[in-house]
Specification:
The structure is a homodimer. Helices cover about 30% and strands about 25% of the residues of chain A. Chain A has about 375 residues and is α/β, with parallel strands linked by helices. A five-stranded mixed barrel of chain A has the order 6-9-7-8-10. A four-stranded mixed beta sheet of chain A has the order 12-14-16-17, with no helix packed on it. In chain A, helix 3 (about 90-105) packs across helix 6. The longest helix of chain A is centred in the first third of the chain and has 15 residues, at about 90-105. The radius of gyration of chain A is 21 Å and the shape is globular. The interface of A and B includes residues 318, 319, 324, 338 and 359 of A.
Chain lengths: ~375, ~375
């Protein structure tokens, strides 16, 4: 089957994955790692998933300039002009605006999926089906579509999307008009969200026409839109990099959720269920990884475990680890760093990183 | 002060220190490590201690041939002929016999201290004083002297020496005639030993004249003695190594304690107290190492500890370790190996090593 030549995908791969330190390091963050132990990085899995939806040449990777070589190494044969390099990190809105102007040069009729590079999707067929439905609707409507995951428990680490039960798009009941985007709730609030039945997890996966998203950026983030628009004739030329370097640093650092989605009136959500995880915490990773009979999730070819259960253990293949008497810990021995931390205390990693930067220097980050 | 030219020392440095794996590895065992974190290995500390008792050229190191370079590296300027290399490990009796014939070539009037290379002695002045007293008595008497440590608690990891309260050597009450050598006792037995007041810890440090020990070897281990004696004219020549290679493998593997000390009638013990530890277990090492306010004994330049107490932690200086929520563990991150084990379970290390050899190969030992 020929894929629709107007289908485009922008994979956002600029994150630094600091919550997974030291498995994830600034020089090789989470999206470039085989965190599942399946032989493919999250980026590779994401890319191959979208190859089934978009013509290969229509898939763009947005990342930091420092990760360009990693992207080329992991996605064999990708052309340089499909790797969009941000000079600095400015959250998702500028990154999406930049990609839009690149795609505009190629195909003004583009319909675009924007997706993170570091999420896990277990039911790929369902995912592809939903995305294709969304693309089909997006191409004929000036709307912004986001995928909302049907929540299975009151997770306090995700943002939620509330939708209007009745006001769906035209007669297609798959698309619900968004009532409210919420920040991460506390547990009580999350439980209320679940009980209400009209809240979904915000997966940060968007589908829209190039026209619709550029209209929205123009309306809600005019400074960002105009910055790129002012040099649109330079994009795709040898002057692009100088131009981007010039405008990017002064660009407002703002998420597409906060800058556009929460403000626009034409936002629709598709309640979805395709085995999604943002793999955003050690707990989330532990949930989705394979575990042995004692509940230990182990990656590493030489890990020997005694009297231990419910640990998540990641050890470089060329290292041996003997672990005795440990329950419910995160244990990572990677390159020049060892981390041992209770699973329930994983939020402390942020503090560790601050302490390391102050006391030891960036070589360990 | 000139040191007595008849004072000789044989430092036994052929052990493999497997109980301290993976801090101690077959390629660099315990005696070559700065286990105290003081800037000197146990061997270096031992050697420098005996430099205050014996002329430097009278100090011999007996070790395995594979450790010769390590010895030369750690004891700068030591001559090759002061490093006695065993072709294979045959316990202490053959090793002492070999050293005896080397020393016999140099000085038949020698009085010899035999000492392990991997013990810790905190009160050096007291130790030197005791050794000098022993040497002084040994030179004029056909006796075998061993140092016995006044026990401070019922340790079940040491052998004990029982002495006769009254029958001391001539009129010198510092030397007690030995009644019995015992193996490691159980706790109940150890407590009885302590209560009795006439038991001492066997430190494996011996003082005797060359004449006395060779007489004893000739009497109690004639096969061992005769093996070396049969080629005594080759020792010190270029044919020595071939001769030793030929006899060593077929030599009985037996300790000097079991082969001689337990059988000889002329054995005396000197009850001593010089801050001795055999540093033979992680618990023993933990006892003698410096600890922080939370009872953590840490070696390694980049170890960051949170909510943790009473651990013994050893991390290579070029590695960073962040350790959270750990109490009473042994944590070693050294070269290509990580060990995490409860301090109370340290006896399991032996099983780990067997498992590793079977499952992973010797590269991790």
């Amino acid at each position: 089957m020929d894929l629709n030549k107007n289908n485009y995908c922008v994979i956002m791969a600029g994150g630094i994955g600091s919550r997974f330190w030291p498995m994830s390091r600034t020089e090789k963050p989470k999206q470039f790692l085989d965190v599942m132990g399946v032989g493919e990085s999250l980026l590779q899995m994401t890319y191959h998933r979208f190859e089934k939806i978009c013509p290969k040449n229509n898939i763009y990777i947005v990342t930091s300039a420092v990760y360009k070589d990693l992207v080329k190494q992991q996605l064999k044969g990708i052309e340089d002009d499909r790797i969009i390099c941000e000079p600095t990190r400015r959250n998702t809105a500028p990154c999406i605006a930049y990609a839009n102007f690149r795609i505009l040069n190629q195909n003004p009729q583009a319909n675009i999926i924007v997706a993170p590079s570091d999420h896990l999707i277990l039911k790929e067929d369902k995912f592809i089906d939903i995305i294709n439905k969304a693309l089909d609707v997006a191409k004929d409507n000036d709307i912004l579509i986001t995928l909302g995951i049907k929540p299975s428990y009151p997770n306090t680490g995700y943002g939620y999307i509330q939708y209007y039960r009745v006001a769906s798009l035209q007669s297609d009941n798959n698309f619900k008009k968004v009532k409210l985007f919420t920040e991460k709730p506390n547990l009580e609030m999350a439980q209320m969200f679940i009980d209400s039945g009209d809240f979904l997890w915000n997966a940060g996966i968007f589908v829209w026409s190039l026209n619709a998203i550029n209209n929205a950026l123009h309306e809600f983030l005019p400074d960002v839109f105009n910055a790129f628009n002012s040099g649109r004739e330079l994009i795709g030329t040898e002057k692009e990099m100088d131009f981007i370097n010039e405008i990017y640093t002064s660009c407002q650092s703002i998420s597409i959720d906060y800058g556009v989605m929460e403000k626009a009136a034409n936002v629709y959500v598709m309640p979805s269920d395709f085995g999604w995880s943002d793999v955003g915490t050690w707990k989330a990773l532990y949930e989705v990884r394979k575990k042995d009979a004692n509940g230990n999730s182990i990656t590493g070819k030489n890990v020997m475990v005694y009297n231990s259960k419910n640990n998540v253990i990641t050890v470089d293949d060329n290292k041996l680890a003997v672990i005795q008497g440990m329950d419910d810990y995160i244990i990572v021995n990677s390159a020049n760093v060892l981390l041992i931390c209770k699973k329930d205390e994983e939020q402390r990693v942020k503090q560790f990183l601050t302490d390391i930067e102050v006391q030891k220097g960036k070589e360990y980050l």
